[in-house]
Design a protein that fits this description.
The complex is a heterodimer of chains A (323) and B (535).
Chain A (H helix, E strand, L loop, with lengths): L1 E7 L5 H6 L7 H6 L3 E5 L8 H12 L7 E5 L2 E2 L10 E2 L2 E2 H11 L2 E5 H6 L12 E2 L3 E2 L2 E2 L16 E3 L6 H12 L15 H4 L10 H5 L72 E2 L3 E2 L8 H14 L12
Parallel strand pairs in A: 1-2, 1-3, 3-7, 7-11
Antiparallel strand pairs in A: 4-8, 5-6, 9-10, 12-13
Chain B lengths: L17 E8 L2 E9 L5 H5 L6 H5 L8 H16 L5 H27 L14 H8 L5 H9 L3 H9 L8 E2 L2 E2 L5 H24 L3 H4 L5 H10 L1 H5 L1 H12 L11 E3 L2 E3 L12 H4 E3 L2 E4 L2 E3 L6 E4 L23 H6 L8 E6 L3 E3 L5 H8 L13 H9 L3 H25 L16 E9 L2 E10 L2 E8 L1 H6 L10 H6 L11 H9 L6 E7 L5 E7 L4
Parallel strand pairs in B: 1-16
Antiparallel strand pairs in B: 1-2, 3-4, 5-8, 6-7, 8-9, 10-11, 11-12, 13-14, 14-15, 16-17
Helix pairs in contact in B: 4-6, 4-7, 4-17, 6-8, 7-8, 8-17, 15-17
The chains are: A alpha/beta (323), B alpha+beta (535).
Chain lengths: 323, 535
C-alpha cells in the first residue's frame, strides 16, 4: 500500500488526461490491484471541503504518512514572489508544494510544467512559473538544487507535454512494489529506463534519415521521408521512448507525420516559438541543419550525409506508407 | 529563492482554482459568485510569436480540450491565411475533434459527475443501493467500464494525430498525416468495440439507432419503459434516479444559449472564411435567447473585465482584446473577484447578455428548424426545455445524447475518406491578416481570434466555454451563467450542500472548484467543499 497525493499548479490537466488513458495497469487496476491509496486528486478525489483540506494538512504536518507526492503544472510565484496568481485551499499553491514535498517520502514531477516550467514559463513568463527542481535546464527551480525528499531522492522528473501514461504508471508501480532502487535517474532527474533512448529510436522514418531523404510536404507528403530536414523534427536530439512505447497504444507523432517538438527536453518549446521557427528546420546558409544529431558535429555530419545520399537506394525516394 | 521564503505568504480569501461563494437564505441559494483562482497568461505568451505558435500553445491551455483548441486555432489561421483545405483534411479534423468529445462524455460522466450520485443525502431513495452499485468511485460496475473504456475513442485520435492529448497535427491547409488503409479499418474497429462494449451495452441498452429515434420528452419516457434492457441500462437508470432525487428541479441557469458550432461539410469549406462559416457547419452555430433563434455572429462577442483581475474599462471584441493582469490583492479592492473574464453577446434587441455554452446550448441551436440538408436538426431538447425547463438533469442528458449522435457522424466521415486523394494544400503565409476560428469542445463553445502583423502574432485572444459559463458578473452586475444557475438551488443539508456540486459540475467546467456556503442571515460559513472539476 502506497499513499499518493496528486495536486495541480499552473496546469492544463493534460498529464491527468494522459494518465487516464493508461492500460496495464489502468487507473482502476492501480487502485484495486496495486493497492495505491489515492489520498486526493483534483479530478478523481472524493473527499470534499474540510475533509479534503484535512488530508492536505495531515500530510503536511506529518500526521498522515505520505509516500508519494505527485505534482502536475508549474509552481506559480507571481506576483512578486507571493504566489497569489495561483491560490488553492486558502493559500498560495506554492506554500502547499513546499510543505507537502518536505513531508513526502518521494516527490514526482509529472509533465514539463512541473519538471522545468514548460509553456507557462516561456518568455515573457507572465505567471513567474518554474519547475519543482529545474528552471528550464538550470538546476534549482522552486525547491532548490540540493533539495532531497525524505527518502533521500531529488524530485523524480517525468517530463513530456504531456507525459505518456506508461511513464507515469510504471514508475508508480515500481515505487509501490519496492523497486525504487531500480529507478536510475539521468542528469535531468529523468528515469533512464525511459529517457536514455531517443525519440528517433524506433521511428518508422529512420531508414529515410539513414539515407538523408526528406519529407517534402505535410499530408500525403508524409507517406515518405524523414521530418528532420525541413520540418524541424527534433527526434534525433530528444530523449524519450515515444517510438518504443507507442501513444494510445497506436502511434506516435513522427509516425503520423508530425515533427517531434522535443517536449521531453527542458528547452521546449524551442526557440520560444519565435517567427519562422515553428515546424521549420533552422538552417545555416540555407541548407545545413543548424542542429545535428546529438553527439555529432557539423563536419562529420556533412560528410556522412553526402555519402548517405550517394548510397540512397531508389525505394528511399518513393512512398513507403502507402494505402 | 530559499525554502524559508516560501512559507511566507499573504492569505487571500479565495480558495482553489475556482471558488464559488453562495448565500443561502431559508434553504435556498439567493446569490452566488464564481471565482477562478489561477492565471498563466497564455494570451500574453502568444504575442510576438510565430503565427503558428497557437497550434502548439493553445492545446496546452487545457489538456482536456486540447484537440478542440488545436481545431479552432487551425481554423483561425486558415481564415487569416486564406488557405485551401482538401476534403480529406476536413473529414480527419472532424473525426479527431469528435473522438475527443466521445472520450470526454463517459470520462466526465462517471469520474466527475456520477460519483456524487452516491452521496449519503440520497440514501432515502429506493434506488440508492443500485446507484452505489453502479456509480461508486473505482469499484462501481459502471464507473469501471465507463472510465476505463473512455480511452478508446482517443486511440482513433492517435491514429491520425500521433497522440492524444496534445498533438499539433492540424495545420493551415490540412493535416500532417496521410492515413493508410489499416488506419481507417482500425479506427472503425476501435469505435465499434467502444460502441459494443460501452455505448450500447452499458449506457443505452439498445442500438444507437433506436436511441436516436427519441425526439421528445414523451419519447424518452416511453423509451425507458420500453423493455428491461433500456430500463436497466445506465441511461435508463440515470433518468429514473434523477427524477427520483429531483435533479430535474434546479440548476436552470440564464436560459439563453450560445453555440459557435463545429464540424464542417468538406465541400462547403474548402476555402475557409469567417463569412462562410455558419453555412458550412454540420454541428450548428446559433444563439437561442428569449425563446428565439438568432444567427451566430462572432462580431457580437465582447469580454467585460469589470470584476476580473485585469486592467480595462469597457467590453472589447477579442480582436481588440487586452490581457493585462493585476495583483488579485489590488483587484479585490476594486470589486474584482476572478481570473475569468466575462464574455457577453450582443443579442439583437436584447443587448449584452451572458449566454450558457455547452451541450445543452448546442442542442438548442440544433433545434432551429431553419436548416440546410447537411446540418444537424434535432428538436429533442427544445421540447425537453419547453416541458421541463432547463436543469441539472436536462443538461446532463444533452451531453450524453451526443455520444450516439457523434459516433454516427464519425463513422460516416470515416467512410468518406478517399485514401488516394490529398490531405494538405501548402498555404501561402501572408505577413498580415486577421483570423477567427471556433469549435465546440465537449463542454462548449471555444473560439480564437488572431491578428497577424509583420509575420508575427500581434494579438491572440481565446474565449473558452469555461469563461462563458464561469465568468463573473459584468459591468451591469448581471450574473454569469453558473452564478445564475446556482441561484434558486434548494439546499437540503446545510452542512453538506451537494446540490451546489451538481449544478457547478453539470456545466463540466475545466476548473477545480471550491464552493463555500454562507448562511444569508448570520453570515456564518457553513462548510467548504471542493467540486471535482478539472483545470
Amino acid at each position: 500500500m502506497s499513499s499518493v497525493l496528486w495536486l495541480q499548479g499552473g496546469a492544463c490537466s493534460g498529464n491527468t488526461m494522459s494518465f487516464l488513458n493508461a492500460e496495464e495497469p489502468n487507473v482502476v487496476d492501480l487502485i484495486v490491484d496495486f493497492g495505491l491509496e489515492l489520498l486526493w486528486h483534483p479530478s478523481l478525489g472524493l473527499e470534499l471541503g474540510e475533509n479534503a483540506q484535512k488530508i492536505f494538512w495531515d500530510c503536511a504536518r506529518g500526521d498522515r504518512p505520505l509516500d508519494i507526492f505527485v505534482f502536475e503544472g508549474t509552481v506559480i510565484e507571481a506576483p512578486d514572489g507571493s504566489g497569489r496568481y495561483d491560490m488553492f485551499a486558502d493559500r498560495p499553491m506554492k506554500d502547499w508544494v513546499i510543505d507537502l514535498a518536505n513531508a513526502a517520502s518521494i516527490v514526482v514531477a509529472i509533465g514539463d510544467c512541473a519538471c522545468w516550467g514548460g509553456i507557462p514559463a516561456m518568455e515573457p513568463n507572465p505567471s513567474d512559473s518554474t519547475g519543482l527542481q529545474f528552471h528550464k535546464r538550470a538546476k534549482g527551480g522552486f525547491l532548490g538544487p540540493d533539495w532531497t525528499s525524505k527518502a533521500g531522492l531529488p524530485v523524480i522528473n517525468i517530463p513530456g507535454c504531456p507525459a505518456h501514461p506508461d511513464w507515469i504508471t510504471q514508475i508508480l508501480v515500481a515505487l509501490a512494489t519496492g523497486r525504487t532502487a531500480d529507478i536510475a535517474l539521468d542528469d535531468l532527474h529523468r528515469p533512464q529506463t525511459f529517457f536514455k533512448t531517443f525519440t528517433q529510436t524506433g521511428c518508422t522514418r529512420v531508414q529515410f534519415f539513414e539515407y538523408k531523404q526528406s519529407t517534402l510536404s505535410f499530408g500525403e507528403g508524409t507517406r515518405t521521408g524523414c521530418l528532420f530536414y525541413e520540418f524541424g523534427c527534433r527526434g534525433p536530439m530528444t530523449h524519450s521512448p515515444c517510438n518504443r512505447i507507442l501513444w494510445n497504444r497506436q502511434s506516435s507523432k513522427t509516425r503520423a507525420g508530425m515533427p517531434c517538438l522535443g517536449c521531453t527536453e527542458p528547452e521546449f518549446p524551442f526557440f520560444d516559438l519565435n517567427k519562422g521557427t515553428v515546424f521549420k528546420t533552422q538552417k545555416v546558409s540555407g541548407v545545413i541543419p543548424k542542429e545535428v544529431p546529438e553527439g555529432a558535429d557539423h563536419l562529420t555530419y556533412m560528410a556522412h550525409a553526402s555519402a548517405a545520399r550517394i548510397a540512397a537506394p531508389s525505394w528511399s525516394k518513393e512512398d513507403m506508407f502507402v494505402v | 529563492m530559499t525554502s524559508t521564503d516560501l512559507f511566507v505568504s499573504p492569505l487571500g480569501r479565495v480558495e482553489g482554482d475556482l471558488d464559488v461563494r453562495v448565500t443561502i437564505t431559508d434553504g435556498v441559494v439567493t446569490s452566488a459568485w464564481t471565482e477562478a483562482a489561477m492565471f498563466r497568461g497564455f494570451e500574453m505568451i502568444l504575442r510576438g510569436k510565430d503565427p503558428q505558435a497557437g497550434l502548439i500553445v493553445t492545446p496546452r491551455i487545457c489538456g482536456i480540450c486540447g484537440g478542440s483548441h488545436l481545431y479552432k486555432a487551425c481554423y483561425a489561421l486558415d481564415t487569416a491565411w486564406k488557405t485551401h483545405v482538401p476534403h480529406n483534411a476536413t473529414l480527419i479534423r472532424n473525426i479527431a475533434q469528435a473522438c475527443e468529445t466521445l472520450q470526454s462524455i463517459p470520462r466526465y460522466f462517471y469520474a466527475l459527475f456520477a460519483v456524487d450520485l452516491v452521496n449519503k443525502n440520497y440514501a432515502k431513495s429506493k434506488l440508492y443501493d443500485e446507484a452505489v452499485r453502479r456509480f461508486a468511485p473505482y469499484v462501481g460496475t459502471a464507473y469501471q467500464k465507463g472510465v476505463v473504456l473512455s480511452n478508446k475513442p482517443v486511440e482513433v485520435y492517435a491514429l491520425f494525430g500521433g497522440q492524444w492529448p496534445h498533438s499539433s497535427f492540424m495545420v493551415p491547409g490540412g493535416v500532417m498525416s496521410a492515413p493508410t488503409l489499416s488506419d481507417i479499418t482500425r479506427a472503425t474497429a476501435i469505435l465499434n468495440h467502444w460502441r459494443d462494449n460501452w455505448l450500447e451495452a452499458e449506457w443505452l441498452g439498445c442500438s444507437v439507432d433506436r436511441w436516436l429515434e427519441v425526439k421528445s420528452w414523451e419519447d424518452m419516457q416511453e423509451w425507458v419503459e420500453e423493455n428491461e434492457s433500456q430500463y436497466n441500462s445506465d441511461c435508463g437508470f440515470f433518468i429514473r434516479y434523477c427524477l427520483d432525487i429531483g435533479l430535474d428541479k434546479y440548476g436552470a441557469g440564464v436560459g439563453n444559449y450560445l453555440a459557435s458550432g463545429t464540424y464542417f461539410e468538406p465541400s462547403l469549406y474548402e476555402n475557409p472564411t469567417v463569412e462562410g462559416r455558419n453555412a458550412a457547419l454540420i454541428g450548428r452555430s446559433g444563439v437561442y435567447a428569449g425563446g428565439q433563434h438568432f444567427e451566430y455572429d462572432h462580431l457580437r462577442v465582447s469580454e467585460d473585465v469589470t470584476h476580473s483581475y485585469y486592467q480595462g474599462d469597457r467590453p472589447l471584441h477579442p480582436w481588440d482584446g487586452e490581457t493585462i493582469p493585476i495583483d488579485p490583492a489590488e483587484g479585490r479592492k476594486q470589486g474584482k473577484y476572478s481570473w475569468a473574464k466575462s464574455p457577453r453577446y450582443d443579442v439583437p434587441t436584447f443587448g449584452q447578455v451572458p449566454l450558457e455554452a455547452g451541450p445543452l446550448a448546442r442542442r438548442m441551436a440544433a433545434g432551429n428548424p431553419d436548416h440546410a440538408e447537411h446540418q444537424d436538426y434535432d428538436p429533442l431538447f427544445i421540447d425537453m426545455v419547453d416541458k421541463l425547463g432547463p436543469s441539472v438533469f436536462v443538461r446532463q442528458m444533452a451531453r450524453m445524447h451526443e455520444a450516439p449522435k457523434y459516433l454516427k457522424w464519425v463513422m460516416d466521415w470515416l467512410s468518406r475518406i478517399d485514401l488516394h486523394d490529398s490531405f494538405y494544400t501548402k498555404p501561402i503565409e501572408p505577413l498580415s491578416g486577421k483570423g477567427f476560428g471556433g469549435t465546440e469542445a465537449a463542454r462548449g463553445s471555444l473560439q480564437d481570434w488572431i491578428v497577424i502583423e509583420d509575420g508575427k502574432i500581434a494579438n491572440y485572444q481565446v474565449v473558452t466555454p469555461t469563461a462563458w459559463n464561469i465568468g463573473p458578473r459584468d459591468g451591469q452586475e448581471t450574473l454569469g451563467p453558473i452564478e445564475q444557475a446556482l441561484v434558486g438551488s434548494p439546499i437540503v443539508d446545510m452542512e453538506d450542500p451537494v446540490e451546489l456540486g451538481h449544478v457547478a459540475r453539470s456545466f463540466d467546467s475545466c476548473l477545480v472548484c471550491t464552493v463555500h456556503a454562507y448562511d444569508g442571515k448570520t453570515g456564518r460559513e457553513l462548510s467548504k467543499f471542493v467540486v471535482n472539476g478539472m483545470v
